[in-house]
Amino acid sequence: SVDCSFSRGVCDWKQDADDDFDWNPADRDRGDGYYMAVPAFVGHKKDMGRLKLLLTDLKPKSSYCLIFSYRLAGERVGKLRVFLANKKTTPVWEQNKGKDERWRTGKIEIFQGAETTNSVTFESERGKGKTGEIGVDNVILISGLCPED
């Protein structure tokens, strides 16, 4: 498995230069490292911020599972979407509101065909809300299918 978390991960993360705002590091409550977040008040409604994970060395014709922690905290905070590079137009995962402020786990299966997926993009879309944030943390890539809960 490959640890792509932000505090000590070995992965290559890039801010998208063509979006409306950047994701920024935020300190965890327990003080052990940080996660990436977009505060609810950044930008204007429908503005986007994209954080891209560059994937190298994924073997063709094999399966991977991307597991991550996410949080949508606050009233009408917006949307969090995940895109794979070879399917740019349609998100493979989307969440638009949190029941509460707790962290949850997202899982995405990545099937490598003849063309390999060379990046995963986390996209935050600004909502109507003024408080809260969208956060992502503990991004891990494992080979094989995603485990059942």
Automatic annotation (TrEMBL):
One of its GO terms (cellular component) is membrane. Residues 2-148 form the MAM domain. It comes from the Eukaryota. It holds the Pfam family MAM. SUPFAM superfamilies: Concanavalin A-like lectins/glucanases (SSF49899). SMART domains: MAM (SM00137). PROSITE patterns: MAM_2 (PS50060). This is EGFL6 protein. It comes from Oceanodroma tethys.
